[in-house]
Amino acid sequence: MKKNYLSIVFGLMMTLSLLTGDLWAQSNQYLHFDRIDDYCSLPGGSQYIANISQFSMAGWFYTDQLAYGQGMMSFRSSSQGFYLIQLDNGKIECRYLNSLGTLHEYATPFYTVVPGVWQHFAWVYDGSTVKLYVNGTVNGQANATGMITDSNIEFTIGKCLLGTFNFVYGGRADEVSVWNKALTQTEIQDMMANELLGTEANLQLYYKFNQGSPAGNNTSITKLLCEMGGGTKDMNLYGFAMTGETSNFNGTLNLGYQAISFEAIPTKLISDAPFTLHGEATSGLEVMYSVVSGPATIVDSTVTLTGQPGDVVIKASQPGDMNFNPAVDVFNSFMVLDPATFVPEIDVRNPLNDIVYDPGLDAIQLAAYASIDYPELFSVSELFLLLKTKRFLQLIGTMVIIQPGGLLRISEDIQLR
Questions:
Q1: Angstrom distance (rounded) from CA 269 to CA 331
Q2: CA 223 to the chain's CA centroid
């Protein structure tokens, strides 16, 4: 991605020779975070840096505005961590908490973060020192020791997780990578100028953010793709609107690049009629579909269910032409349900016991809750209570009141005879 960045020294108000730079990589795409609830998560991400004495993480960030508590990149638990959080006035809290509970930290000067500008950050631990590089130059450092031993800490982009703290980021992110080595200044400057191949030694996680249609309908995208790991290192996407200019993939596409937008498919019944898929490529070329697995067939863009229940996976692809490269395949999955296998669950609320003693033969209120899975497809329209005593057998009609969440409350006063 092309980045324009500023490197400014505020104490002396002197401009460095590297005031502005143009840096190129493959695409100008990025992911925007809304500073409300958007973030990316890889459960157990610390397994890739655990039990070693050197590790690093790096990425491009474009901050919308200066504000306290913006998590950028983070491995963080209550006992161990390695993370960057923006504080007031462009100050960054850079922390490394080792397995012994020893905190090593460096806090940058104010206005290290410049809003509205792409900046590259690398947080590096080499076994004896932690260093923060901003735009390829050491911003500061601190002595450090130990290692992270917990292999089950979540790796997040756009949020720093701990208890009830909600340190979420507002702005753009791109080209985030994690390494099980200490990056050198030369390596950092090289990755700023040249996009990584994804095959570099010690590279553990690498996210290009080159997905979807810029500012388009990307609601079918639920994962941030990793350039390695065969899907096992893809990050979960939380909170993103995935439509419009913000809280979505955005930017510009290089000539020849194309991406597929593939609308999500709702749950179906085995009796549902054939339906049409809706997907499009940014190139305008026709999207091709195929059934990867499950009880369905497809002709062109029309899916026909076979009448059997199961999970269906459909692939959308675009092989490219003389002007466009092949698009990354997009997969959509949905369930096909047999309504005959779904029955309501009834929870009797009154009386709670099987035997009711009522010497005065007073009125007894009968009450129960009925619920059923997939309320968007199924509903309970009527329920009867069967009252059985030693003296008579009677079918009691009930009054049904629909409750939120697909629940029905059944209540009836009766007089024993």
A1: 20
A2: 6
Give the whole-angstrom CA distance, residue 277 versus residue 291. Answer: 12
Pick among 3.90.1800.10, 2.60.40.10, 3.40.630.30, 3.40.50.970: CATH of 260-340: 2.60.40.10
User: 261, exposed or middle or buried, with CB in 10 Å at 0-12, 13-18, 19+?
Assistant: buried
Using the predicted structure, report yes or no on whether residue 382 has a pLDDT greater than 90: no
Any idea which fold 3-252 has? Jelly Rolls (2.60.120)
Where in the chain do CATH 2.60.120.200 domains reside? 3-252
Q: Please report the pLDDT score of residue 15 as a whole number.
A: 31
Burial of 276 (0-12, 13-18, 19+ CB in 10 A): exposed
Q: Which residue has the higher pLDDT, 390 or 299?
A: 299
> Chain-wide mean pLDDT for the chain?
84
The 10s digit of each residue's pLDDT in 50-73 is 999 999 999 999 999 999 999 999
Please provide residue 151's backbone torsions phi and psi, each rounded to the nearest 5 degrees. Answer: -90, 10
Cα–Cα distance measured from residue 6 to residue 117, given in angstroms and rounded to the nearest whole number: 7
More confident residue, 356 or 309: 309
Question: How far apart are the two ends of the chain, measured CA to CA in Å?
Answer: 82
pLDDT of residue 358: 64
What are residue 306's phi and psi, to 5 degrees? -85, -10
The verdict on pTM exceeding 0.85 is no
